[in-house]
User: Fold this.
Amino acid sequence: MLGKTHITLGMASALILTLPGSASAVVTAMAGGALGGWMPDLDARHRDKAADKVRVREPIFGKIVNAACIAAFLVLDLVLGKGMCRYVVDHWGIPPACALLALAILAYLGSQTEHRSFTHSFLGMALFCAAVWFFCRPAAIPFTIGYASHLTADFFNFRGLQLFFPLKRKYSLKKCPSNGRVNQILFWICLGLTVAAVTALLAIAAFAAG
Ligand SMILES: [Zn+2]
Assistant:
């Protein structure tokens, strides 16, 4: 699947599974889900196009939109003032600093590995999610949901995932290419679900607040 599909799938999954009860928690769920959904494809520059049978590289415009989308959540979180940024500032110390360093190292290592190997494994998922947990706890569960949604979606593609990295064996259901009609349909469904979930959750939060 392409980045935009993983990001919307991560957001929709995180919103629906965590049902956040305030505007800042909605932003945290969307940011964590989007980031978790996007993170495993850090390794995408090592993509082997032939293996997916079709051209899978995302256009540069799409990458810019994806990055802008995640950056917008962080700005919104900062403006709302009660979410992830506030948590990081209030809990800053040695453990979150080490976790941030670990995240940077993992991201670098992930970007250097073969596509669908380390970052698309249970080991990679556990390490990334643990680092997010120690860095910014409120974002950890949405991030984990987003990450798991990415591996689940990729599992249906032709190209296998090294789920038990460093073991070499690859697993997939080989049902669809990563950039075909299924990718497009899933993107629109997840976008619709995200918009509907945000509208409903914000309405409920506003109603509860009186
Ligand atoms: Zn992937």
